[in-house]
Amino acid sequence: MDRAIERVTTVVIGAGHAGLAASHFLSDRSVDHVVLERGEVANSWRHERWDSLRLLTPNWLSRLPGHRYDGPDPDGYMTTGEVVEFIEHFAVASRAPVRTGTKVTSVRPAEAGYLVSASGGDLHCRSVVLASGACNLATVPEFSAAVPASVEQLTPLDYRGPANLPDGGVLVVGASATGVQLAAELRRSGRPVTLSVGEHVRLPRVYRDRDVLWWMDVSGIWDQRYDEVDDLARARRLPSPQLVGTPERSTLDLNALTALGVELVGRWAAVRDGTALFSGGLRNVCSLADLKMKRLLAGFDQWARGSGRDAEVGPIEEFPPTVVPAATRLSLDLRRGEIGSIVWATGFRPDYSWLDVPVVDPKGRLRHDGGVLDAPGMYALGLPVLRRRRSSFLNGIEDDARAIVDHLARDLAAG
Asked: Hey, is 34 helix, strand or coil?
């Protein structure tokens, strides 16, 4: 006997910070809805992060709609456990109608809306908000299949700490925030570490006595709208900046890693007969990252002068260029035993394998205009540069969610 189909106006998929922010504004608009979550509230923070991870943003910047950090360390950085607690408190305070342990298996068009099939039963709704996250699957290059079987391969979704890697050296691939943090942690554990470096965003943790993300916030850079960005597709693909949240507010760039004893090599280009082949363009990649950082910091200086706030901050600082060895190795024989494991810190992508609506491009990315999909009544939240540059960070979801729910409510009212 077929199960009865539940009817609700809106289904939100995902009970992370994005889905809960959508729920908050849907409740404000008196739109009946449910939030379906495959695991627990803040599930990815509970189960898909390494043990030592902290937020990149300082605590004073941690905010959700009507919910801000009010603890004793505003300049600190939340641990994963603290992030879970922060999001849980928001879920309780906003009385979000979350159904945990409810895995969505299909979303497909139905009369006047969509049919959402989930482990708890089927729901018919007029609108859907996709807030299932941007980092469901790790992106690993196809040539990883040619790596010798003797070398263990894992991604940041598998990694918890140095102890869960086999003996031997580690090759970390990717120099975003994830890559540099894991390379530093593994090196401090006593392991030989090689870091394969491609395009990256270099930033100091502190500039002129202020957290660099304070500058991004107050100068208005983070508020730039998606339709004002020159190359939006590229902006959405940029790696996360080389930052780490530590009590010392330390900078973790390639120079810091070199000082720790991490060996730098170029971008991993291919595997041939069990040998990793690296690009010879490391110096150019680093020079470009240095140049972009210098331009960004100069923009901060200009803003401080123009806004009359120069006296509030410290003196202008200059940072040495990235030190690149005169000669870096261009190959590494993975069969010799020098490398015991590879960590692919090469990015993430969403998983929309359950979405039976033609809104996903051949590369698995949603086609959307500021979170409004080209399917009536379907929306997205929690993706990079969704509506503003700050969309990627916890504090960026409020404006995004408000705008998306406003659009959704107008659409519902229009019938």
From this structure: strand
What is the rounded distance in angstroms from the CA atom of residue 412 to the CA atom of residue 167? 58
Task: For the beta carbon of residue 32, count every other beta carbon within 10 angstroms.
Answer: 12
Q: What is the dihedral of CA 221, 227, 232, 237, to 10 degrees?
A: 60
- pLDDT class for 2, splitting at 50, 70, 90? low
**Residues in Cβ contact with 288 at an 8 Å cutoff, skipping those fewer than 6 apart:** 199
What digits encode the pLDDT tens for the residues 56-79? 999 999 999 999 999 999 999 999
Is-contact 129 16, C-beta < 8 A? no
Q: Whole-structure pTM over 0.70, yes or no?
A: yes
HSE-up of residue 102 (Cα within 13 Å, Cβ side):
21
Residue 415: pLDDT band by 50, 70, 90 thresholds? confident
What is the set of domains in the chain, with CATH numbers?
6-136+350-414 (3.50.50.60), 139-344 (3.50.50.60)
Tell the residue number behind the tokens 């992060």, with chain if given: 49
pLDDT over threshold 50, residue 390: yes
Specify which residues 107 forms β-bridges with: 116, 355
